[in-house]
Amino acid sequence: MTNINASMAGSVWKILVSKGDKVNAGQDVVILESMKMEIPIAAEQDGVVKDVLVQEGGFINEGETLIELE
To answer: In 3D, which of 56, 60, 45, 47 has the Cα closest to residue 19?
Structure first.
């Protein structure tokens, strides 16, 4: 299992994947908003989304797990 973590603190602007989706390395999975900038977060490896641990509009801290892949 692999976790996709936030690279910075901010709000979850958009979640681009759902539980069960197949993702490829480099694919954007979440877009964060911080200081009025949109920051895409990409998967570092291929996998299937096991769980989405955040909700759109929620605030997250740097290093917090956003998505679990299997």
So the answer is: 47
**Which of 14, 5, 18, 2 lies closest to 62, judged by CA?**
5
Q: Which domains does the chain have, with CATH numbers?
A: 2-56 (2.40.50.100)
Q: What is the DSSP letter of 8?
A: S
Band of pLDDT at residue 1, cut at 50, 70 and 90: confident
| Bridge-based pairing state of the strands 59-60 and 10-15 | antiparallel
Cα gap 5→26, rounded to integer Å: 14
Instruction: Look up the pTM and report it.
Output: 0.91
